[in-house]
Amino acid sequence: MSGLPNRAVTSIHVDRDNHNLVFATYAGYAAGNLYTSTDGGASWSNAIAAAQLPAVPFYSITRHPLRPGWLYLGTEIGLFASQDNGANWSAYNDGPANVIVRKLSWQGADTLVLGTYGRGAFTLKPALDVQTVTVFEFYNAPLKHYFRTADPGEAAAIDNGAAGPGWSRTGDDFKAWAAFAYPNEGRQVCRFYGSMVPGPNSHFYTASAAECNGLKSLAVRTANSVPRWNYEGLSFAIALPGDAGCGATQVGIYRAYNNRADQNDSNHRYTTRQGEYQQLIAQGWAGEGIVMCAPAWPPPPPFWRRSGDGGSPLSTGVETRRRSDCEADRRSCLISPRSLWLPWLCARAPRRSRRDCRGCASRSSASSSAAGSPA
Predict the structure, then answer these.
(1) Other Cβ atoms within 10 Å of 250 Cβ, number
(2) What is the pLDDT of residues 58-88, one digit of tens each?
(3) DSSP letter at 5?
(4) Spatial distance between the Cα atoms of 22 and 266, rounded to a whole number of angstroms
(5) Residue 111 pairs with which residues in a beta bridge?
(6) What is the model's pLDDT at position 67?
(7) What is the DSSP letter of 94?
(8) CA 137-238-192 angle, 5° bins
(9) pLDDT tens across 168-178, in order?
């Protein structure tokens, strides 16, 4: 292996999502005791570490389980952290101070455990900032293609014709989280693009780490003269569906595929509209089910709470329906005393009318108030 020193190796870390990304730490009072490889260990560099990190022994390195690119480094003089895969480093102020950090490990997905020399073990939970973004949808009638972007600048450019003629907004937008600022349940969404030539002239999105890495590996093995999916980066973050689908405060995102790979004209649509998803299937598209779960928007108001188990009522001091009844057909509705329609609770049943939603209330305000008071 080229570029590595002849000194004691103290730890090796292989990125869980990108096996070509490898880190190695070294002992010794020398500059640059952290080496990085982006090609699976074929070549190594310590240029960034030599410029930004102290010339002391490094003992352990680990990555945040939920945040690709967030690295933590245990050294002779404390803990250091990076949020961009080691491009920039700084001392981490929330852990133990100037103490030898020998071992780093994770307790669950959000608690970092530090084993020190002389001061026992420490635990800390790195703060996870959360930012909400809008994922816009466009449709091109001549091409019969759909496209999504979470970049407002890109969306505005498409509106102004930068992507060519024929593109218009569908209004089927959904909320997600920023690619590097999302809650624990979020997963980063990889964005791929074919090409104008040889194609396909389309984009593909996936929140599956396995699917993302598989397409990256396939692109490396495929000549650029052959149609392939090329990785463009991380677009946004979203939740994945569980065995029972999306959660009670989430909106399912369906994926449909146009079945035109043989014509080198592949395109996928990601939609929250179940009725339009079924229409695409009737037109010959392949239905791939719910592949993502968007946070419902606007979020539940502060006075809303869930009381008791799955069969208990949703108690807000207003007319309500039992949660088990509403969720049995995935049509949760809640009506205020003035019979206002709250679309964030009825988003799962877009074909239901406002009258239907009003009918979802099966209790009077008085009986609802007796069942539970507002949170």
Answers:
(1) 21
(2) 999 999 987 878 899 999 999 998 888 888 8
(3) -
(4) 34
(5) 107
(6) 81
(7) T
(8) 60
(9) 999 999 999 99
Amino acid at the residue 369: S
For residues 371 and 313, the answer to whether their CB atoms sit within 8 Å is yes
Residues 6+ apart with CB under 8 A from 249: 295, 296, 299, 300
Cα angle 10, 15, 20; round to 5: 100
Q: What is the pLDDT of residue 2?
A: 67
Cis peptide bond N-terminal to 298, omega within 30: yes
Other C-beta atoms lying within 10 Å of the C-beta of residue 8 = 10
Q: Which residues pair with 184 in a beta bridge?
A: none
- In sequence order, the 6+-apart residues with CB closer than 8 A to the CB of 342 are 333, 334, 335, 336, 357
Q: Which residue has the higher pLDDT, 106 or 315?
A: 106
By CB neighbour count within 10 A (0-12 exposed, 13-18 middle, 19+ buried), where does 84 fall?
Answer: exposed
pTM: 0.57
Average pLDDT over residues 336-348: 34
